[in-house]
Amino acid sequence: MLSKEEGTITVRLARSAIIARLSGEPLKTGDLPPIFKEKRGVFVTLHKNQDLRGCIGYPEPVMTLLSAITDSAVNAALHDPRFPPVQPDEIAHIMIEVTVLTPPTKISAKPQDLPKHVKIGKHGIIIKKGLYQGLLLPQVAEEWGFNAKEFLSQTCIKAGLPPDAWLAGAEVFSFEGQIFTETTPNGKIVEQD
């Protein structure tokens, strides 16, 4: 678990990485707590006027927290295929959220029992079947009012699978996330429960 101070650093670091890339300047990180050298999964989400503006990340701990945050932030701002790249004058109107993930764990249960193993507001979901894979962060189920079955179905849809693929041989993984977000663009940073 990250401390409140470390969580604040994650969001400031994400914003700094985007600004540095947009301005062509090098990113200056200064001295960071040791946790930023640990490998962690992370997602960076951008919102503008309460609307999603970009979200990219790494579900698996494949790089250091520092690298995962800076890479995810820049990619969410400039390379999310759902949105045009963030423009330099736009960053002042964007709120940044960083979700630091636990490693995904496969849910070993009969398909019909999977919803019993999904805790809304606590778990994020990854669904894999064949070449298809989809992920929804823990906060998505609460934001959209999904129950466990709907959350599983929406994760299948995100993967490009039929909504009931979780009942038909898909692998289902859960993970948890510690969420730090700005309350206003470049404003106060809080940890979400």
Question: In words, what does this structure look like?
Answer:
The chain is of the alpha+beta class. It folds into two domains: 4-101, Glycoprotein, Type 4 Pilin (2-Layer Sandwich), CATH 3.30.700; 105-176, Hypothetical protein ph0010, domain 2 (Dna Ligase, domain 1, 2-Layer Sandwich). The chain has four helices and eight strands; from the N terminus they run H-E-E-H-E-E-E-E-H-H-E-E. It has helices at residues 4-23, 65-78, 138-144, 148-158; strands at 41-48, 51-58, 94-101, 105-106, 123-129, 132-136, 171-182, 189-192. Strands 1, 2, 3, 4, 5, 6, 7 and 8 form an eight-stranded antiparallel sheet that branches. Strand 5 and strand 6 (132-136) form a beta hairpin. Helix 1 packs across helix 2. The protein is globular and about 50 Å long. The model has no long low-confidence stretch (mean pLDDT 96).
User: Number of folding domains?
Assistant: 2
Query: What number is the mean pLDDT?
Result: 96
> How much helical structure, as a percent, in the residues?
25-40%
Q: Extract low-pLDDT stretches.
A: none
Output the helix-strand order: HEEHEEEEHHEE
CATH class of the largest domain: Alpha Beta
